[in-house]
Design a protein that fits this description.
This is Glutamate dehydrogenase. About 45% of the residues lie in helices and about 15% in strands. The protein contains 16 helices and twelve strands. The strands form two sheets. Strands 9-8-7-6-10-11-12 form a seven-stranded mixed sheet, sandwiched between helices.
């Protein structure tokens, strides 16, 4: 804490991991002796840079860009870029730290990194978005490459932003290095199923948790927060599995539709027209819109899928969900539950799928995008979806197994952290003091 002052999100992410690793360090003192802990919490590299750009009125604007290259023990740094006004070093470090273990859990050869900017894409014209992303890439290109560091999207960064960044990278570097970014449009090297992967993967993971108790999505009531990339495809897969999704949100408020959310409307409003979720009720008058996004957790549901942002479920929201009978929570967003909220879920027997495991489907398919780019080949939607489903089952099983082995049967927070850690720690040990 003294070494990283004012980085509360980073401290929270590190505390969750370190608490889980106590039984590992007791059983295997070699990790302590080789200083793995001290090394793993220190990023290999932190890059911070100026991003100057000109808005539509001709004013010069300056934002701050970040890339944290956290750990490359098992592969090139891999992790998304977030454009949101709240972005700072603490948020990028927490995301990069989590990414190490998540990427390890996928079983693929990818290290951990994360980046972004405090740029706010809301209300910006297409031209402004392009000029900003080009300026951002004009600095970032020095540090990335298909075998070095492969960024992708996150909050505020979708296919449009990736496209502009890819174009700028190509202009500067020459050649055609398709594998330098993932989340590309399929017309120039993107992977089918990447858009759907995080949301679908979260639902596949929760489905495994439910099946272990003889339950399923069929006939259940589901609440999904957010209405961005992860939320939309979590809603889609939950509906395909027979659930009724009754609510979704954005940072201003939430929509409750007792008849079930009409996903076509949400997709058009959010993906095409880039409007607010409040517009939904104009087309579906039987639905209700409520100001304030946290109220969404007061809606009774069997399954809650927080898919918006960090710390969106605190202890009070968790208690409300429990009192209303929630059976399972799957984290589609990164760190959406506070440490206190997780305690509430675990101590009340709620099936809890932590972000590192439950939302790893996005980065897993990003790694499949890299593989396809290297092969100069592309798999069909069904092929990628089947691989994604298999990877999510494996992540579930390895988390269950690690939890059992270390005496925390059923605790997937501990299981995922340990399973993710062991692979990276062993790789670091084999590579000497690096
Ligand atoms: P998007 O930008 O597509 O969507 C984010 C959604 O969350 C929007 O509906 C947004 O509303 C809402 N939101 C953002 N900030 C807040 C806030 N402070 N309070 C309430 N709602 C908020 O991002 P993604 O769907 O890509 O990412 C969502 C989460 O999933 C993030 O935590 C991200 O790190 C995580 N994730 C994403 C992956 C991916 O593949 N995209 C992979 C793994 C994790 P508004 O429009 O009002 O801002």
């Amino acid at each position: 804490i003294a070494r990283n002052p004012h980085e509360s999100e980073f401290h929270q992410a590190v505390k969750e991991i370190l608490d889980s690793l106590v039984p590992v360090f007791e059983k295997h003192p070699r990790y302590r002796e080789s200083g793995i802990l001290e090394r793993i919490v220190e990023p290999e590299r932190v890059i911070s840079f100026r991003v100057p750009w000109v808005d539509d009125q001709g004013n010069v604007k300056v934002n701050r860009g970040f890339r944290v290259q956290f750990n490359s023990a098992i592969g090139p740094y891999k992790g998304g870029l977030r454009f949101h006004p709240s972005v700072n070093a603490s948020i990028i470090k927490f995301l990069g730290f989590e990414q190490i273990f998540k990427n390890s859990l996928t079983g693929q050869p990818i290290g951990g990194g994360k980046g972004g900017s405090d740029f706010d894409p809301k209300g910006k014209s297409d031209g402004e978005i392009m000029r900003f992303t080009q300026s951002f890439m004009t600095e970032l290109y020095k540090y990335i490459g298909p075998d070095e560091d492969v960024p992708a999207g996150d909050i505020g960064v979708g296919a449009r932003e990736i496209g502009y960044m890819f174009g700028q990278y190509k202009r500067i570097r020459g050649g055609y290095e398709a594998g330098v970014l993932t989340g590309k449009s399929v017309v120039y090297g993107g992977s089918l199923t990447r858009t759907e992967a995080t949301g679908y993967g979260t639902v596949y993971f929760v489905d495994e948790m439910l099946r272990s108790k003889g339950l399923g999505f069929g006939g259940s009531t589901v609440v999904v927060s957010g209405s961005g990339n992860v939320s939309i495809y979590a809603i889609e897969k939950a509906q395909q599995f027979g659930a009724k999704v009754v609510a979704c949100s954005d940072s201003n408020g939430y929509v409750y539709d007792p008849n079930g959310i009409k996903l076509d409307t949400v997709k058009r409003l959010k993906e095409v027209e880039r409007k607010r979720i409040s517009e939904y009720v104009k087309e579906h008058p039987t639905a209700e819109y409520h100001e304030g996004c946290s109220g969404i957790w007061s809606i009774p549901c069997d399954i809650a899928l927080p898919c918006a942002t960090q710390n969106e479920i605190d202890a009070d929201a968790a208690k409300l969900l429990v009192a209303n009978g929630v059976k399972a929570v799957g984290e589609g967003a990164n760190m959406p539950s506070t440490l206190e909220a997780i305690d509430v879920f675990l101590s009340n027997g709620v099936l809890f799928g932590p972000a590192k495991a439950a939302n790893a489907g996005g980065v897993a398919v990003s790694a499949l995008e890299m593989a396809q780019n290297s092969m100069r080949y592309s798999w069909t939607f069904e092929e990628v979806d089947a691989k994604l489903h298999g990877i999510m089952k494996n992540i579930y099983e390895s988390s269950v197994k690690a939890a059992r082995e270390y005496g925390y049967e059923g605790n997937l927070v501990v299981g995922a952290n340990i399973a993710g850690f062991l692979r990276v720690a062993d790789a670091m040990m084999l590579q000497g003091v690096i």
